[in-house]
Structure of Amino acid permease:
Amino acid sequence: MDGRQENLKRTMTSRHIMMMALGGAIGAGLFKGSSTAIDMAGPAVIVAYLIGGIILFFIMRGLAEMAIKNKQARTFRDLIQPFLGNYAAHFLDWIYWKMWVLNIAAESVVAAIFIQYWLPGVPVWTLALIVSAIVTLVNLFSVKLFAETEYWLALLKISAIVLFIIFGLIILFVPFQDHAAIGFSNLTKHDGFFPNGMQGLIMAMLVVIYSYGGTEMIGVTLAEVKNPEKAIPKAVKGTLTRIIAFYILPFFVIVSLIPWNQVNDVPESPFVTVFNLIGIPYADHIMNAIILLAVISSMNSGLYSSSRVLYTQAVDGNIPKLFSKVSKKKVPVYSILACTSSLYIGVLISLFAGSKTFNYLMGSLGYTVLCIWIIIAMAHLKSRIKQTHKAPYPVRSFPFTTLIALLALLAILIGVIATTSISVTITTIIIYLFITAAYFSAGMFSNKVA
């Protein structure tokens, strides 16, 4: 370990960050949270994910434009600060950090639940501990090794989703042996397409936003990406189309094959349930293994993102310099170790809450993704006001797309507040007030570098 703070090394390419973004977004929110979203909205969950996908598309285009204009940026903080000031940058950095440390804690428990499919007698907390240790070790090696690991894990989960869609469509529309084609009947025959009305759709939006969260991870890879002005737009374009397709099509298959009011009655993921319906020997075990690796992939990405936020905060002198020290392979070891502590907190929570830990943490995470996207949209609007020359990667139809996204997010936030458990809302507000109090108590009214 070198005692000096050093710069991170640019070793990642556009294929790495594209797969990282997919790795962060296609995780527990899709494979485990899908049951919760379907239970809330019924078949209308397809509409919820379509709306979320459009908003995501508008937000990410704005993020990419700001990233290309600010080539010296290392993370969100550097993108937001010139336009919204020090407090907004501080707030965004820490709620983003909070989002990922809670997320990896939640997903360690989800990974343990999937392992319990094979080892039902082993406690959730024991399995979560083993998974947490593996993810920690992967992140402590070189960034390139991490990126390659994440690339192949993400590719595996994408392949699994594609197979799921193909097999699901075959079951829906092709009769074979004793199986009759199901068709679209399940979309409407159980109290209609909107069984829980608009309230159910709004409630599901919190899960939807949480599920899509992680795509904005592209904004924290800036210091370690080769040729960011070319890599970022390419990654954004490729990531968005894939994420929207990988959410909407699987949900269409699930709610068409399984009556929506029965999805939440089974302990395993709806993806495993559908593969059981196919009748291929061991298909459910294969799918469960792939989902497990997908969740570990999302944890992997989350630990990377949260550790880089700590690293940049330390470089700027806002937290102890210890967290800015890097290894010989340019890995911020102390930042990674600090963030892994959340994994073991998740293990402790699961010791008492068991498999319900994920549901407890998911609500607060949904709020955080909403706030992050709102701040990015506001910064993008402000960035054009201060712009003196044409952007190299301009967002078309500006400001309409960003304004639509911002207004939609604010409307969803109001709806979520009105329909979400008061305990989740109060807990989230307390966390945000603590972050705000920390900023003002430290006197961070201007850039202060130690």
